[in-house]
Amino acid sequence: MIRRCDWCETNDLMRRYHDTEWGVPVHDDRRHFEFLVLDTFQAGLSWNIILQKREGFRSAFAGFDPQAVARFGAEDIERLLGDTGIVRNRRKIEATLRNARAFLDLQARFGSFDAFVWRFVEGAPIVHRFETPSELPAESVQSQAMSKELKRLGFGFVGSTTCYAYMQAAGMINDHLVGCFRHEELAGPAPVTGRPRARSGRRAS
Predict the structure, then answer these.
(1) Of 13, 76, 93, 111, which residue is 20 to 30 A from 67 by alpha carbon distance?
(2) How far is 60 from 137, CA to CA, in rounded Å?
(3) 128 lies in which domain range?
(4) Phi and psi dihedrals of 28, rounded to 5?
(5) Radius of gyration of the chain (CA)
(6) Does residue 193 lie in a domain region?
(7) Total structural domains in the chain?
């Protein structure tokens, strides 16, 4: 029997995401932007809701192309507010448009968003060895630093807990439980141990 992290056992879609994406290091800027968009809309909601609407978000936000989203204007905001395929929240929609523009600014400064964001974990995934769901944190020193810097650069809806969920999704942090079959597959030969400061229940993206 395959052992997985408890949070993904809701349905097949969640299990597939857990098995194939969660915690896998991302180095493609469009994928980074996708996870930023999805985690922005997840704030206050469950990941299952967002995952169910993922294709709706993909269609609504131009295939998660930051250049295209950066060109969205007032008419696009109204269109998105009427789109039942996504979470219709004006503040999150407006933040996503601002984030796309800030995302492009970072690409211009650093060559890629990937080069910028991986600095917060010194270029390599942080691998934790948590054994129970209650140990999974809501944030970390790294997510706090990322949140502070992104806000300074004009991003919205990027609080520390949102950044931590994004870092989990983008593989900058491996928070698969040690009993999960994906933990060692993603851990590599030399796991890094350490425990982020703030703790809560599951914060899987």
Answers:
(1) 13
(2) 32
(3) 6-14+22-187
(4) -115, 125
(5) 17
(6) no
(7) 1
pLDDT in tens, 81-130: 999 999 999 999 999 999 999 999 999 999 999 999 999 999 999 999 99
Q: With CA atoms as reference, report the closest residue to 150 among 138, 168, 134, 167.
A: 167
- CB–CB of 31/63 below 8 Å? no
Structure tokens of 125? Answer: 């995934």
In a domain, 197, yes or no: no
- More reliable by pLDDT, 202 or 149: 149
Q: What 3 state SS string does the chain have? A: CCCCCHHHCCCHHHHHHHHHCCCCCCCCHHHHHHHHHHHHHHCCCCHHHHHHCHHHHHHHCHHHCHHHHHCCCHHHHHHHHCCCCCCCCHHHHHHHHHHHHHHHHHHHHHCCHHHHHHHHHCCCCEECCCCCHHHCECCCHHHHHHHHHHHHCCCCCCCHHHHHHHHHHCCCEECCCCCCHHHHHHHCCCCCCCCCCCECCCCCC
Answer whether residue 202 is part of any domain: no
Task: For the chain, report the end-to-end CA distance as a whole number of angstroms.
Answer: 24
pLDDT digits (tens, 9 = 90+) for 46-69: 999 999 999 999 999 999 999 999
pTM: 0.90
Q: How many other CB atoms are found less than 10 A from the CB of residue 29?
A: 20
Q: Is residue 199 in some structural domain?
A: no
- Nearest CA to 36 among 61, 71, 9? 61
Residue 116 phi, psi (nearest 5): -70, -50
